[in-house]
Amino acid sequence: MTDYKLPEVWEAPESMDGKWGGLNRPTAGSRFEQTLPVGEKPFQLYSLGTPNGVKVTIMFEELKELGLTGADYDLYRIAIGEGDQFGSDFVAINPNSKIPALLDLSGDKPVRVFESAAILLYLAEKFETLLPSNSIERTEVLNWLFWQTGAAPFLGGGFGHFFHYAPESIEYAIHRFAMEAKRQLDLLDKELATKPYIAGNDYTIADIAIWSWYGQLSQDKLWDKAGVFLNVKEYPHLQAWTEKIAARPAVKRGLAADYQSIH
Ligand SMILES: N[C@@H](CCC(=O)N[C@@H](CS)C(=O)NCC(=O)O)C(=O)O
């Protein structure tokens, strides 16, 4: 129990502890001028190898695996721990200051795309793959893609934050978010007991989005010993799906992608 008393109106503290505390501010927008490099390839991806970041490198590698040569990309590291996401050029691509952010330079005008699920959808539509054209099947893929977008903040911002990053272990917060993380894992396990991929018979952008968080958690590769803590081994169908996707050459390449410096 802390002795914190709620004031009537919240005010930002002078400083916050924890790995991310120093970066947070209650305001949006760019904090400094920074020109980003722009390469020759049709797509410019400004990102990092986090769960949201690897969704997009995996997607590009899947497109390349299919022989879609137009899916070539330059990949740049945005060091979020050092605040690169608040530079002016990055904020012009993603005003929300989060990786991943994509520029499509293949058309007459540059197109900016932010939010990892929006990027997956944009690329799937552009290259007409990993998303069924049949309306009913497409809806099921979008159900799971939007599920991931809504669910992962409970896992990452909630459970992962209080389990791994918070400066102290707060029992209430850990129970609150471990409960939800376990419920989400159980949901995926029950769904995957009935079909090979999360939206049906085929591998889609929904699998890419969900695997990047829940697959990596099932391999205990997200936060040190979080998989043990959440006993991920008790979900056999989720484990089998995780391993099947991890074995894909494009997934291996997407995880090992080489980021160029922006400085
Ligand atoms: N809903 C967003 C979330 C993106 C996100 O939270 N990115 C994190 C890294 S995984 C980030 O850039 N954090 C930096 C910050 O919060 O300042 C998406 O799916 O793209």
From TrEMBL:
In this protein, which residues make up the domain named GST N-terminal? 41-131
> Start and end of every GST C-terminal domain?
134-263
User: Coiled-coil regions in this chain?
Assistant: none
Gene3D superfamilies assigned to the protein according to its UniProt record, in alphabetical order? 1.20.1050.10, Glutaredoxin (3.40.30.10)
The record's section on Pfam families has: GST_C_2, GST_N_2
Q: Which PANTHER family match?
A: DISULFIDE-BOND OXIDOREDUCTASE YGHU, GLUTATHIONE S-TRANSFERASE-RELATED
This protein's name: Glutathione S-transferase
User: Which species is the source of this protein?
Assistant: Streptococcus himalayensis
Q: What is the lineage of its organism?
A: Bacteria, Bacillati, Bacillota, Bacilli, Lactobacillales
